Please model this.
Amino acid sequence: MSITLPAAPSVLAIDTIGTPTLWAVTIAAVVGLLVLDFIATRKPHEVTMREATLWSIFYVALPLAFGGYVWSQHGSERGVEYYTGYLVEKALSVDNLFVFMLLLAAFAVPKALQQRVLLYGIVGALVLRGIFIALGAAALSAFDWVFLVFGLVLLLTGAKLLKDALSGNEHTTDVADMKIVKLTKRLMPVTDEYVGPKLTVKQAGKRALTPFALVVVAVFATDVVFAIDSVPAVYGITGDPYLVFATNAFALLGLCALYFVLEGALAKLVHLSYGLAAILGFIGVKLVLHWAHMEWSSVPEIPTLASLGVIVGILVFTTVTSLIASSKAEKAAGESATADAAATGPVDEFAGDLDDPDTLSRR
Model:
C-alpha cells in the first residue's frame, strides 16, 4: 500500500539585486552614517534651522543618487520600484514625526536632547525593520497567502487611520496610559530631572532611570507599531528584500534632520492622515490583487509605475488641501482676534479714561 505524503508548500524564488557585496557595503554605510550622527551629537545642543536643512538636503540627495545607481545598473523596473518604495516610506516617516513630536512634548524633553532621542529611535527602528524584513522575506518565499495577510493588514491599518482622522484622534498620545511606560516604572525607579543624555544615574545608592531613558523606551515602543505598517507597505511595491531594506534605511536616516525642518510645519499637514490612509488602502488592494493573480492568472495586477502615479497624486492632493485648510483656519482665527479686539477696544479705552481724574472732571 502506497502512502501519499502531503505536498510541501511551494517555495518562491526571491528575485533580488542584493549581492553579498552590495549588502555589506549598504549596511556598512548605514552604520557609518549613524556613528557620524552620534559623534555630531556627543555634545547635546539645540539644532539650528541651518544645520537641520543642510543635513536634510544631504539625506534626500543620497537616496535619490542611489536610485540613479539602481536604475542604471538594474533597469528601469527596479528603479521605479526603488523610488516608489522610498516615497511611500518617506511619507510614512513624516507621520512618525507627529508621534515623536507628541512624545518629546509630553516628556518635556529639553531642546538640546531632542536630537539624541530621535537618533535612538532611528537605531531602534532600523533594527526592528531589519528583523521584520527578514521574516517577511522568509514568509513570502514559503507561502503565497502571506501577500493576502499583508494586504489585509494594510487595509485594516488604513481604515484605522481614516477612523482616527475623522474623529480627530489621529495624533494624540497620553504618556500616563502607555503600558510600556507603566511597566518600566514598575521595574525601576525614575528620577524627576534630566541628567543630560544619561539613561541611568545613582540615586540614594540605587540605580535609577532618567526621564531620558523613559522617553527612549516610549519611542522604541512606537517603532514596533511603525514597523508593522511600513514593512508590508513597501513589500506591496517590491518583493526584493534588499530594496525593502534600502528604502526603509534611507527614509529613516534623514528622519532626525527632517524633524527639525518640519517641526513648525507639521501642524499644517492637517489632511496627511487621510492621504496615508488612502495610500495604505491602495497598497493593500494591490497586495490582495497580487495574491489573487498568483492563484488565478486572469485577475489583473496594478503595475508599479501606476502605483507611483497614484501615490504621488495622493500626496500632492493632501498636501495642497492641507495648506489651503490651514491657511483658511489661520485667516479665520486672525479675523476672530481682530473682531474681539475691536469689540473690547472702546471698553478698554473708556476704562482708561475713567482712571484719568482730568478726564472725569471734564465729563
